[in-house]
Amino acid sequence: MSLVALSELLGATVRDASGTVRGRVREVAVAPQEHPTAVAFLIVKTPDGERMLPSSSLKSCGLTIRATDEVGGWDKYTPSDGLLLLKRDLLDQQIIDVHGRKVVRVNDVELDATPVNGHINLSVIAVDVGARGAIRRLTQGVVPAFTMRTLLERIPPRVIPWAYVDLLETDPARRVKLKIVYEGLSKLHPADIADIVEDLAPAEREAVFETIDEGVAAEALEELDPKVQVSIVESLDSDRAADIVQEMDPDAAADLLEKLAEDRSGQILSEMQPEERNEVSQLLEFGKRTAAGRMTTEYVSVPDGGTVDDAIEALRQFEGSREAVATVYLYSISYKITGAVPLVKIAISPPSTPLLDLREEAITCLPDTPDDEVAGLFDKYNLVTLGVVDQDQRLAGIITADDVITMLRHAD
Amino acid sequence: MAGLRSFLKSWKARVVLVLAVIGPGFITANVDNDAGGIFTYSQAGAQFGYTLLWTMIPITIALIVVQEMSARLGAVTGKGLSDLIREEFGFRVTFFLMLTLVVINFGNVVGEFAGVASSLGLFGWSKYYVVPVCAFLVWILVVRGTYASIEKIFLTASAFYVCYIVAGVLAHPDWKAAAFATVTRPEAAGIRNYGYLYTVIGLVGTTIAPWMQFYLQASIVEKGITAKQYRASRWDVIIGCIFTDVVAWFIIVACAATLYATGRHDIGRDGADAALALRPLVGEYAYLLFAGGLFNASIFAASILPISTAYAVCEGLGFESGLDKKFHEAPVFYWLYTVLIVVGAGVLLVPRLPLVYVTVLSQVVNGIVLPFVLIFMLLLTNDRELMGEHTNSRLFNIIAWTTVVVVISMTVLMLFFHK
Fold first, then answer.
1. CB–CB of A62/A54 below 8 Å?
2. Could B14 and A412 be called an inter-chain contact, meaning their C-beta atoms sit closer than 8 Å?
């Protein structure tokens, strides 16, 4: 096997079986549906148009390319959607390095040329993002190819194996879409996805959010700057936007929808599931810089007559955010809040312990409590969660410490 | 591109209020009247009186067209200029363009520190202290991210530019002659005169500086302006350009009415000479305003130029960039940024360095390089695959290509008549 760089292939002269020069390589095409790494054919620019030289007809693949058959056997090239063209789609473009969790620019592409049954098997193995590819492309045609090869071997390569690459592909109509060959991006932590997304242009961001799983998309969206959130949600169609928004934390979803134009947020709301829609629209009605605007309506509460076992069961059933489970709230028959039990106490008590034995006073505030007072309560009582109650002392929602940190950081 | 985006984001988040009223176009316009601009306009007025005022109208038209192209490229593609050049023209072209950009921007950084040195020199402070101190301040402010809060001050202090208009009025120019000179056809003899061509190219280079196109496009992308919202931004750009050139016109007029009229045709080794010469002619306060405006303009541009160069280069060539990265994670980015400031300021410490000469020279080099940057911008803005329905209009193409041809011809003529 031997390594060939894409930049060496491009522009190389092509000789057919008769040994006559027939043209130069213009593009290298991969057909991902057929094989994710194998080169399907080379596009050769010949005096009478562009022709496809299938890799099964490659006899040798070096500075000159030799084919096993005559030029007549190469079909005319017609552009097609499903193809990955290495020069157009990869060279000089930004790709997502799933392993390094960042966006990088492609300097060159490394291909492997292995002789099999009398022809050459060409396949993509890695993407060069380092100095080796850069210098090769800089010196090409100026420094003799052989000298260059020996010289370049001394430069340590910086490559990303093809398996760790996700690329943003542009189709002929210039619409960007994420081409997830190995679904690497979806497996990343949402915070990493958010970092990657921030490095992309708007159209590319849209492509990412159209492709990845809604749950992951929702979490990644929450990690982004509010301004970026808005521009992404505006670019998605309302159906897809609703799918993602309803997976978000209700308070984050409300914050986001509030920033959108009214008809747009209304449209998204109307396409959400009824349950999520109710929660979010409730939050939207509250003032933004008050406890009501900060709270989430997903919390854990059990009747105060219950035991630790009941509380654990309630925790099992709970589908909200992890921050919200830090406290289990207790309510009376009339649904008034009567106390709170920290998760720690539940974890270390026998299942049959009555919750009233573990009860602590529940610190609460009213929905119209302004932000600074909310922060004050957290500070004063060292809270992890703060209950928000209505006039009748019924729990409307809770504020979690991470919301307060966010609130303080954006206070100015 | 993203790196510059997040850099701009961190400080721009805090100037949201200011930005609600004035946009990237206006800020770029303010940074445009930097030390290089002020020296070049002053020199033009001192050396040629009103005779170069005719350049202002064509330069303004070209400036509007070019800046509008940058802004539109940013809004439609969501990418920076160096990213687009890399993606559309490949590695080699980008490499040499970035190399050129580093060299000319280095010249501009030297010019900015020359502005710092001469403005503070007016207060009797030696450049051997003020330049290193200011260079260090700029470096640390940007790296530490505290630049954000300072930005507001610079922007507010940009109101100082009005002082050039005041100085222009106080200089009691011959308004009729100045207005007439602005709209008359230039004399044909100029194209055989080396000094004349040199100054005209300098005027073009300082007003339509190549680095501003990279900076403006990045700002548009950072602000998240899309093709849909672009209409409003277009006006921001146009008004910014006109403001820039009105200020420029008054600087030329002020120096023409005072320095040229009294026979001081060279503002000399030190830009402060210009202000000092203005002192008896326009009074104590105008001269202090002149110095204050020059200092603000210089330090404002000195804070933006090196970092924006580092971002453009690293993003075009694919090096790690961003102030959120640690030094060892983005070594090229930090080194480039640091070297531009340290060496740029270091040059100023050379004894008896002719500050104005060096600064104006850097603007002439800007002018020589401009057509090449413009050609790339023209190819990009006419690429239908990239721009869709937002490609250049025929009128824009005519104006921009004319600019390219005229500036290249002037450069060739200048070299031809060089003694």
1. no
2. yes
Taking only the tens place, the pLDDT of each residue in B255-268 is 888 888 877 777 75
- Chain A nearest CA to B77, separation (Å): 7
Residues 129-188 of A with CB under 8 A from B: 129, 134, 137-138, 140, 174
Please give, rounded to a whole number of angstroms, the shortest distance from the CA of A167 to a CA of chain B: 14
CA distance A146 to A151: 9
Burial of residue A192, with CB atoms counted within 10 A of its CB: 0-12 exposed, 13-18 middle, 19 or more buried: middle
Q: Are strands A385-389 and A364-365 parallel, antiparallel or unpaired?
A: parallel
Spatial separation of the C-alpha atoms in residues A43 and A27, rounded to whole Å? 5
Q: Which residue, among A196, A131, A179, has the nearest Cα to B318 in the 3D structure?
A: A131
Residue A350, judged by CB atoms within 10 A of its CB (0-12, 13-18, 19+), counts as: exposed
User: Token pair 């094989």 is at which residue?
Assistant: A35
Amino acid at A292: A
| Residues of B whose CB is below 8 A from A92 | 86-87, 90-91, 94
Helices (H), B348-393: 355-381, 384-387
What does the block give as tokens for A251? Answer: 């308070």
Residues 6+ apart with CB under 8 A from B46: B255, B256, B259, B260, B264, B265, B266, B267, B274
Question: CA B299 to CA B302: how far, in whole Å?
Answer: 5
Report CA B219 to chain centroid distance, whole Å. 15
Residues ≥6 apart with Cβ < 8 Å to A262: none
Please state the separation of Cα B30 from the chain's center in Å: 9
**For chain B, the helix, strand and coil percentages under 3-state DSSP, each to the nearest 5:** 85, 0, 15
Q: Is A229 touching B (CB cutoff 8 A)?
A: no
DSSP string, B166-202: HHHHHT---HHHHHHHHHSPPPGGGGG-HHHHHHHHH
How far apart are alpha carbons B354 and A357 in whole angstroms? 85
**Per the CB < 8 Å rule, is A134 touching B95?**
yes
Give the mean pLDDT per block of 10 residues along chain A (412 residues).
Answer: 85 88 91 85 90 88 83 85 84 83 87 86 90 87 79 84 77 55 72 84 83 87 88 87 90 87 80 80 72 83 92 90 90 91 92 92 88 91 91 88 85 60
Written as one string, the DSSP assignment of B295-326 is HHHHHHHHHHHHHHHHHHHHHHHT----TTS-
pLDDT digits (tens, 9 = 90+) for B104-143: 999 999 999 998 988 888 788 888 899 999 999 888 888 8
Tell me the residue type at B325: K
Are B327 and B338 spatial neighbours (Cβ–Cβ below 8 Å)?
no
The H or E element that residue B219 is part of is helix B210-222
Q: Looking at this predicted complex, what is its ipTM?
A: 0.78
Q: Is the pLDDT of residue B18 over 50?
A: no
Residue B193, CA distances (Å) to A310, A403, B185, B200 in order: 95, 69, 16, 11
Closest chain A residue to B88, measured at CA: A92
Residues 6+ apart with CB under 8 A from B210: B101, B104, B366, B369, B370, B373
Neighbours of A358 (CB within 10 A): 21
**DSSP conformation letters of A295-341:** -BS--EEEETT-BHHHHHHHHHH--S-GGGGGEEEEE-TT-BEEEEE
Please tell me if residue B97 touches chain A, with a CB cutoff of 8 Å.
no
CA distance B180 to B177: 5
Q: A173: which residues sit within 8 A by CB, 6+ positions away? A: none
Q: Are A22 and A44 in contact (CB under 8 A)?
A: yes
pTM, rounded to two decimals: 0.78
The alpha-carbon gap from B98 to the nearest alpha carbon of chain A, in Å, equals 13
Q: Are B248 and B56 in contact (CB under 8 A)?
A: yes
